[in-house]
TrEMBL record:
Signal peptide: none annotated. It comes from Halarchaeum grantii. The keyword Ribosomal protein does not apply. Gene3D superfamilies: 3.40.1190.20. Residues 1-297 form the Carbohydrate kinase PfkB domain. This is 2-keto-3-deoxygluconate kinase. Belongs to the carbohydrate kinase PfkB family. Keywords: Kinase, Transferase. GO terms for molecular function: kinase activity. The keyword Kinase applies. The lineage of its organism: Archaea, Methanobacteriati, Methanobacteriota, Stenosarchaea group, Halobacteria.
Length: 317
């Protein structure tokens, strides 16, 4: 039995080395990346039994994805399809004032046709925790229904449901996203949202604490986590608020930082820690991720503990 089960699309990430422009690149780094598999891998490396579910094309590209996920720390249990393709995205890293750019090539991916009936849902029913994100229902009408079905199935089985809003403007508009997301909220126990998404997509106002309390009051979430980038994160649980500053890091690759945070948070909650300790651990995992290329936090528990134990002079004791 897995402690944590996730569901969603994993793409192949193709990126020029350094900050080279895509249009003049002569080589591309080749990695697997997706919010839900990232969370599974991150938690798996930190001591949680984690499984990622999805649907992939029966092809070398699909097998590349599963091989990567499994080599990095999570189990992969996928439906293999003879139809649909393997989604990809191109990442062009940049520094200010030029923004990092993402170009998606994911239309008609095999995962967009995945239904609850064909997935190994018994894994979700036996798990302690089920996680997915707002990226998944944005990908197709079918996945909108599948996301709802899986969350309800998990909740009926007594599995804790965790959902990250994870809004992507290249997939849908706030006006399209809000009613879909809110239709899912009754089946969610733990909600994670960036403060900017809560404002732009969910129409909430006030500071992070006000946002968390408004969400909990309206939808009955057990826990609400509001991430604030460089300002850290805030969590509301059982009426109590915990604030956690971000841990400074020299950033090499920021992509996947949010997934590292969620993976770290869920790891410690599944291991029995309270919300304050889990939030601190999540911040440490996220800071380490920023130093690592790729979308996943390929770190060890000892490395995370070393970050938490550092003194003000930056020397691990």
């Amino acid at each position: 039995m897995s402690d944590l089960v996730t569901f969603g699309e994993t793409m192949l990430r193709l990126s020029p080395p350094g900050q080279e422009r895509i249009e003049r690149a002569t080589e591309l780094e080749f990695r697997a990346a997706g919010a839900e598999s990232n969370v599974a891998v991150n938690a798996g490396r930190l001591g949680v039994e984690a499984t990622w579910l999805s649907k992939l094309p029966e092809s070398p590209l699909g097998r590349k994805v599963t091989a990567t996920v499994e080599s990095q720390g999570a189990d992969a249990d996928v439906v293999w399809s003879e139809e649909g393709r393997q989604g990809t995205y191109y990442l062009e890293q940049a520094s200010k004032p030029r923004p990092t750019n993402v170009v998606y090539d994911r239309a008609n991916a095999a995962v967009t046709t995945a239904t609850a009936d064909e997935l190994p849902t018994e894994r979700i029913e036996r798990a302690d925790c089920f996680y997915t994100s707002g990226i998944t229902p944005a990908l197709s009408d079918t996945l909108e229904g599948t996301t709802a079905d899986l969350l309800e199935l998990a909740q009926d089985a007594g599995t804790t449901t965790v959902f990250d809003v994870n809004y992507r403007s290249k997939l849908w508009t706030p006006a399209e996203a809000r009613p879909v997301l809110e239709s899912l909220f009754p089946a969610i126990d733990v909600l994670v949202t960036a403060e900017r998404d809560a404002r732009a997509v969910l129409g909430l106002e006030g500071d992070a604490e006000r946002i968390a309390r408004d969400l909990a009051d309206e939808w009955g979430f057990e826990t609400v986590v509001v991430t604030r980038g460089a300002a850290g994160a805030l969590a509301l649980h059982a009426g109590d608020v915990t604030e956690q500053p971000a841990i400074e890091a020299d950033t090499y690759d920021a992509v996947g930082t949010g997934d590292a945070f969620v993976g770290g948070f869920l790891t410690r909650r599944l291991q029995g820690d309270g919300v304050p300790a889990a939030l601190e651990y999540a911040a440490a995992v996220a800071s380490l991720k920023r130093t690592i290329p790729g979308d996943t936090a390929l770190v060890t528990p000892d490395e995370v503990e070393a970050v938490l134990e550092k003194t003000d002079d930056g020397i691990a004791r």
